[in-house]
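Students often ask why inverse folding is considered easier than folding. One informal answer: many sequences map to the same fold, so there is more than one right answer. In these notes we will look at a single instance of the problem. The structure comes first.
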């Protein structure tokens, strides 16, 4: 989970943990996110578009390249995110935890290509 605001990060972590996820993060800086993504591939990601004043697009591009289902959480107006619209689901802040979990589950379901058995 990439989020630079401690309270929002704690809220997201609580929601993900309550849904049964093991949470890595919150990771608060773009540099740390990129470092971690060079060594690790998470099963899914929740990303704040603005990490301490840095646009998170490089991390989003890396997650997309790895095929990681991703939901963006942001307080920005959706029209400000035109360059990534359609590539990722977006959950607006203030967010509803149940909505975030629903969106993340949908993103995982869209990219889950494992075969049963």
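Output (designed amino acids):
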């Amino acid at each position: 989970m990439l989020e630079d605001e401690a309270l929002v990060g704690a809220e997201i972590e609580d929601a993900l943990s309550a849904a049964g996820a093991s949470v890595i993060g919150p990771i608060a800086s773009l540099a740390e996110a990129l470092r971690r993504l060079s060594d690790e591939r998470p099963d899914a990601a929740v990303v704040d578009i603005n990490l301490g004043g840095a646009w998170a697009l490089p991390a989003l591009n890396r997650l997309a390249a790895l095929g990681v289902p991703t939901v963006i959480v942001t307080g920005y107006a959706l029209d400000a995110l035109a360059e990534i619209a359609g590539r990722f689901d977006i959950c607006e802040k203030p967010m509803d935890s149940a909505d975030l979990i629903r969106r993340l589950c949908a993103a995982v379901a869209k990219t889950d290509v494992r075969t049963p058995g």
